[in-house]
Amino acid sequence: MTNSQNGWTNVVNGMPSVGQAAERSRTTTLADIQAFTEMTGDRNPVHYDEELAKKTAFGKLIVQGGVTTGILNACVAEDLPGPGTVFLNTNLNFRKAVGVGEKITGRVEIAEMRADKPICTLKVSVTDGAGDICVEGTATTYTMPLNGLK
What percentage of the chain exceeds 90 in pLDDT? Predict the structure, then answer.
């Protein structure tokens, strides 16, 4: 089946392959916490009160889970499957908290894909600078055909 004969017609990056993967990395900042709080209202003290946070099981000030997993949004929307991609479902397990100033890497890998529709099942993860898994799970995505819309 060629790209012009399947559900991936006019998708910017074309039809992906099982096993194809993409990664993005960045370092978290206090500004991430503040921006996420501005958007959501999440003012949990473990994100703001450093003295209190040091006394918790985390032992440090941590960024919100949405900040940690946000890198996965960039992976799917920018890289794989690529522009036009949105999440239909996510199933995420949080394994390790991420602190301020930590490098994180989001990774998405095509586990399954449909040829008749631009729908993929992905293995997703976020690791820290030591390579420890902070978040892992699966996601289902849909990729809108954007070519020819301009």
Answer: 92
